[in-house]
């Protein structure tokens, strides 16, 4: 069972990832070695990204408590932020802050945010649903066929060549061209993401899928000179789809100073043995669906037959 407060941390991380206007890497939880203490410091949520030539770090600390957060917590956040070298510190509380905590936060340039929730009778005006229907698509890789360009650089400092590989289990791949420039991972997981995004809605059965070719490569191997496109990638996959109903759970409002509050309408239930939450988030004129709980890389989830008017 997740530890107390983890659900709030996951929601904050998902909201920040889904609504950021700049490319950022969101990690939750994260561990950073303190510059002053030398100790490993756990941070609930971190955002990292480049602004010009600056590599910036924003840390979020979250508390899902019944009592108002006091000045002691703000003191702790200020100390932790200085130790890990944070450029910005954000506190998120489900129960608000004392007057002293607000004064100290202002003095320490700590941004205070809130997350409030209701579970009945006060659903968002832009989506009045008692449930949503979702389709879970599960993908299993049966066989892989892969070719490399002859001028592919060595993949490590030992000079190991891609065309000499007997296994790709210890090799890193990425999307090509840089769909997600910071996403490196195992070939199977990236290929499933690629196929799931483009091809598998309401499809079942076994088939050979061509995902990368010499004229229009979609995936790349990570080499000592950076990502290099694959000449060809085909995978034989078995796909199954199953419909599930997720009932309404609550509405969460993420209060952000000087910005419009974000409203997340949450639906949750069991999907294939996992507890899954789908949050529909209104961000300006857009509605973003955030899925939490499917983490094994072999499944994707799509929302069926629902439209929204923000």
How does this structure look, described?
- The chain is α+β, with helices and mostly antiparallel strands and 310 residues long.
- Among the domains are: 6-117, Trna Endonuclease, Chain: A, domain 1 (3-Layer(aba) Sandwich), CATH 3.40.1350; 142-236, no CATH class.
- It is built from four helices and 17 strands.
- The chain has helices at residues 6-19, 71-84, 99-107, 187-198, and strands at 25-27, 30-33, 40-43, 45-51, 54-63, 88-93, 110-118, 131-148, 173-175, 184-185, 205-212, 219-223, 226-255, 262-271, 274-283, 286-292, 299-303.
- It has a 15-stranded mixed sheet that branches.
- A hairpin with an 8-residue loop joins strand 9 (173-175) and strand 10 (184-185).
- Helix 2 packs parallel to helix 3 (99-107).
- The protein is globular and about 65 Å long.
- The mean pLDDT is 83.
Mean pLDDT across all amino acids: 83
Overall 3D form: globular
As an assembly, this protein is: single chain
Q: Percent of residues in beta strands?
A: over 45%
**N-to-C CA distance:** 35 Å
CATH architecture of the domain at 6-117: 3-Layer(aba) Sandwich
Low-confidence stretches: none
Helix content: 10-25%
Structural class: alpha+beta
Q: SSE order, as H and E? A: HEEEEEHEHEEEEHEEEEEEE
Q: According to CATH, what is the class of the domain at 6-117?
A: Alpha Beta
CATH topology of the domain at 6-117: Trna Endonuclease, Chain: A, domain 1
The main pleated sheet reads as:
15 strands, mixed
Number of helices: 4
Total number of strands: 17
Gyration radius, rounded? 22 Å
């Amino acid at each position: 069972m997740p530890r107390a407060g983890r659900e709030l941390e996951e929601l904050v991380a998902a909201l920040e990832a889904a609504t950021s206007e700049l490319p950022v890497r969101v990690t939750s939880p994260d561990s950073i070695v303190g510059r002053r203490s030398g100790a490993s410091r756990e941070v609930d949520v971190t955002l990292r990204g480049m602004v010009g030539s600056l590599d910036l770090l924003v840390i979020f600390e979250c508390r899902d408590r019944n009592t108002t957060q006091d000045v002691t917590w703000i003191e702790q956040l200020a100390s932790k932020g200085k130790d890990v070298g944070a450029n910005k510190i954000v506190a998120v509380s489900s129960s608000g802050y004392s007057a002293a905590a607000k004064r100290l936060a202002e003095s320490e340039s700590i941004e205070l945010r809130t997350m409030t929730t209701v579970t009945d009778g006060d659903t968002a005006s832009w989506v009045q649903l008692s449930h949503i229907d979702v389709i879970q698509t599960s993908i299993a890789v049966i066989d892989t066929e892969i070719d490399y360009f002859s001028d592919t650089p060595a993949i490590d400092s030992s000079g190991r060549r891609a065309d000499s590989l007997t296994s790709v289990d210890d090799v890193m791949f990425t999307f090509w061209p840089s769909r997600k420039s910071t996403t490196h991972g195992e070939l199977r997981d990236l290929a499933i993401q690629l196929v799931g995004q483009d091809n598998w809605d309401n499809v079942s059965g076994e088939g050979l899928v061509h995902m990368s070719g010499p004229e229009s490569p979609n995936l790349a191997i990570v080499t000592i000179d950076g990502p290099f496109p694959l000449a060809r990638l085909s995978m034989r996959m078995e796909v199954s789809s199953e419909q599930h109903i997720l009932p309404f759970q609550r509405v969460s409002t993420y209060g952000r100073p000087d910005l419009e509050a974000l409203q997340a309408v949450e639906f949750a239930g069991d999907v294939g043995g996992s507890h899954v939450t789908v949050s529909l988030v209104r961000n300006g004129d857009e509605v973003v669906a955030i899925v939490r709980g499917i983490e094994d890389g072999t499944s994707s989830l799509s929302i069926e037959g629902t439209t929204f008017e923000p």
